[in-house]
Queue: 4 jobs
Job 1
Amino acid sequence: MADILAPVTDEKARSFSIAEQDDRKLVRRLTFSYVAALTLIAVLSALVHLLLDNIITQQSSSGSVIKVAQRQITQTQRVTKAALDWTMGGRPAARQELADAVKLMAASNEVLTGRSASYGFQVELSSAMHGIFFESPVALDNEVKRFVYHAEALLDTGNDALNRAIHLQVMREAASGDLLHGLDRAVSQFELEASERVESLRDAQKVVLVILLLTLAAEAFFIFRPLVNSVQLYAQRLLELATRDALTGLHNRRHFFELGQREFDRSRRASKPCALLLFDIDHFKAVNDTYGHATGDDVIRGIAEIACDMTRRTDIAARVGGEEFVILLPDTGLEAAALVGEKLRRAIEAAPYGTRSLHATVSIGIAEAEAADVNLSDTLARADIALYQAKREGRNRLVQAADSPAV
């Protein structure tokens, strides 16, 4: 069978109509899915941005908290040193240094315990941190307050050497004992929790990124792939509309000349023969006038089917007029083309057409491309002359261009 579409029947036309309706539904569904996917991608992208921003914020906030907690250790040593300098040397500057350091240490403790946000951030204590600050055995909040109390009391002792000694001793023991260990533990816990919070946010960011990538993959598989397939189907249908005869499915006149001229040129380059069969239905107007155009269409479709069945894959069959057909036979000389034409004529004559089982005949003109032919139209013109010679001789016959009289 020739490499062309099967003739288009009414049933196929209805199938095309149903397919078009299904396509419209598919397009609407794909459009909705595409918009939904884009919305989801936008939401996920925003979520990734928010998570990243939150990670940066958490790291900054945690860094500030850890910095204050670490500074408490330094402040403990600073308060102790200032206290020693003041009690031993009585320097006025040492007393002011002690007062400033104690004030800063007390304020930092209020921030670290979540009772104050004076440093621009609010600490929310976890259960572990709450235990370190307010529960035994550490009770760091009490230890800091006790240390601050003795430092402030030291400032108020005046010249009482005994009280100074007592307060200073308590401060020195705390700075090298429970207070220092408690502050170290608080710093370690703050660092641990900060790391866990950031890691948790990073895990969430990874999950969102995976969902985003899966969404993109699903969009490509379930939306873009069907969309591309639909575009390809539409392109194929447009190509069929542009190149095929709607009634028979054969090549139309314009496409026949495109393909035929290409084959004509190839035959010339390869020095191969190339022949044409040009035929039309005898008394076709009478069929339409007597039985109606629907029956006439049945006859045209039936003849097109026979032409398809009797041609090779390399042959080019087309409907070039209302009841006129042409078949280009590459690598075929005039005698071989005459055999094909006669076989075709007999098959068309013998076949019944339509529900009325009508019979029809065709007249055929045959021409082989000659050296004098400039293009395919020249060969077709000689086949047309032969066709009309066949009609003048009584129809239902085949005439070769070489046998037709010169015009």
Job 2
Amino acid sequence: MSTRTAILLSAATGLGLALSQTVAAQETAAPAGITSPVGQAPVAEQPQQPEVQAIADIGGVLTPRGRLVIEPSLQYSHSGVNRLTFRGIEILSTLLIGVFSAEEAERDIWTAALTGRLGVTDRLELELRVPYVYRDDTLRATVPTVGDDSFDIDRDLSGNGLGDIEITARYQLNRGQGGWPFFVGNLRYKSVTGDGPFDIARDSDGIEQELATGSGFHAIEPSITALFPSDPAVFFANLGYLYNMSDNVDTQLTEELRITKVDPGDAVRLSFGMAYAINPRASFTLGFKNDFIDRTKTTYFQDGRTATQSSRTLNVGSLLLGWSYQINPDVSVNLGLELGVTDDAPNTVLTLRVPFGTNALARW
């Protein structure tokens, strides 16, 4: 496998469920020019692992033993909804009898994160990610009332603070021999260090006065990643299941309404694509990811009775584009872009990552 293949997945690494990895270990092969003793079979050359800086949340071939990678990143996410609703009767295409309601919603999220990855062995890697989140939501709506009257809603909320800290372990399951791809098992845990939706301030009507910086629920995500080098490209795929733990939140929203239990919907996560080396330093990635999110079930107590309400399922699909440039063996720059292709996906997600690697811990 050439050096071109070795950097292919650099671009993929900035896309994002969040991929976040750096250099991979090379398997030891018999030195060139050395032959086996007479009467013995030639020494089989071990397949080389592609040096992957994988896509966020997907994982790749692991950081070598003793190598520490520190990766600052900045992510911007934008979602927008513009909706014009007509309630009434259409007699002709130009003659409408009824009322109109208009809604415009914009959501911007900035996430600055510091990620550390350590190669415990050549097949085991641990990762810690600490995010800081800033959110800004704007809602403008015109709501019709009885008669010809209407009223406007204009809300602008923001929130910032520590997000949900994540811990991830990755283990390489095989050595890619016999024409097989490399398989990596991933296990991610998401904490509740950020302010969840039931931790923020609300008014007497239960309307939020600030925005949450975390999900408010513990989550565990097992997944498996496949990497198949085919110089000058590397094909990748990931399949995972996100399990969100239910919680007895027991929160009084208004005098009449109390939320007792919330069971967030789990998700099946799928992604695949290809990374291509332009030259020994630069590469780009093209891929697709899709999250199928189940219904969230909310149990509440109101008017002397307990009831359960379910939300609708979500289909979050995005096109992945990525670019990477290797400044030197220890530093690279990765830029990832996600373009939403389903109604539930953010319009755009742009992620910049700059991983710095060091072998300072290799002697240990």
Job 3
Amino acid sequence: MAGYVLVTDATVDLPQSVIEQYGIHVIPMAFDLDGKDYFHYADCREMPLSVFYDKLKQGSVSHSSQITPQMFKDNFKPILESGKDIIYIGFSSGLSNTWQNAFLTIQDLQEKYPDRKIIGIDSLSASVGEAVLVLNAAQRMAGGMELEELAAWVKCHRHAARHWFTVQDLFYLKRGGRLSTAEALVGTALKIRPVLSVDREGKLIVCAKVRGEKKAMDFLMGKLREEGVSLSEQTAVIGHSANPGQAEALQKMLEAEGLVKDSIISEIGPIIGTHVGPGFLALTFIGEEDRD
């Protein structure tokens, strides 16, 4: 058994079965819906995702919150006091101040627990992009990789985690400032779907625009063929928000081409779902190693 624990946050968007399989510790994150506060846990104990997205479709408004330093302490301290070290892979600093709170907490706890190792890594990604990095780290941890070696692998592969996604309702990107009102109106009228990813600073960027669901899926598949490495050894992660039909169709496309070893479908939680709305579809995988 490893002498350390892999910790991440609730933006990771991995199925609960995978989290349990690898013993990943997921820190819950807060969100509010119509002014009422909730915590999103990996097992969705406070609000099922079906309820969350149904409410968004009915016009409810949601906001997400960062993890506070106290929440980090509450999750890190029991692990340290049990005699284990920590590797924390966190939500992109380009999208939230959560990473800064984690960094400050780790500095504080390292002074109080000098015999323990706490390694924090900014994933520079979110949702299923963060998930594919965490999944690969968990698999290596289960294979016996030591803490420092795993940390080095994550740091040099965080830019290799490829995450491509599209959205169905442009309203949510407009509200978050990713699209102008005019772009959202025109895109909706023409059924144009933006394709997004993150840049090297972990910030969200619009990379392309396609028309229709089929072309969106073809674009994602094209990126897998173009950028993926050692695909026959990989588990790709497909993410969706209240969009199971398209996610399953994308998985069937993967299976038909035999491009990857396996694939996982994961529904997007309310932290990221707040900003992309229902109809999100993503494909994530590991591309060429990128040392930074």
Job 4
Amino acid sequence: MIPKNNMITTYPRRITERVYLVGNHFFRSYLVRGESCALIEAGVTWSVPQIIKQLEELEIAPEELQYLIISHAHFDHVCGIPGLKKAFPNLQILASEAAAKVLLKAKVVTGFFSEDIALAENLRRKGHITQTVPTPETPETINVDMVVTEGEQLDLGKGSIMYFSLLPGHSPCNTAAYLPLEQVLFASDCGGYPINVDTIFPMYFAGYEDYVTSLQKLRNIDVSVLAVPHELLLVGSRNISWFFCQSLESTVDLHESILKDYKIGWRQDEISQRLFQRFYRGGLANYSMANIKVCTDLLVRRTIEAVNF
């Protein structure tokens, strides 16, 4: 079960001397402080007013926040960009080259903000949103100011140096960041979506083998804090080791289950529907049904692609 130290109800929250948790339970962002500051994860439109208010509480001046690190180009990680850029005009957007290319596709960006609106409607219907949510400022495209590569560093000053690692598997453009000074790993969605205390939804949408390799790579890093974008924050090597083991086990089990059904004659759409019925609950049910159906379709497709019959 997910340890109790994940059950955070107040934001902002100081995690380490230099790292703060902001945003909300469903869409978490992280502030890293040095001489300048970086924000990791943009979240969705709904997150933006919360993040701005929380950064004000932390007395972060607009000119102090200089970087916004985007882990990958999925709508729930990028739709907060326009609002954050408006509030912090000097903000530079950092992402992988693959993510930068995705964000220059107008049709894709338009689809992202359609999903952003659908998600806000779901959250409001469930009572998670009670305040007024700003209408998304839908840009035609989103420009990345700085492309990060494997092993690249971002020096914020005062010893706060971020290291980047490209980890395809969840998405072709996926990037994790690591702050070795405090052993904080910002793992993006590499470990899947924690639906509840007992269930992790594997998300190898770009490739099963790459996803497993990424998990194995991350579990070998010395980590004291595992900071991810959705619902989860783990402290302590024992808890973090548990999570990576649980994530890897869930991924392998799902892969084998899909293959078993496929080999005995289930159609791909039938397997996908069963996965949807199994996983569309908890925080994952805040997303549109169409969005999660695409996700389960991808899981089935990537599983079958990974095996030669």
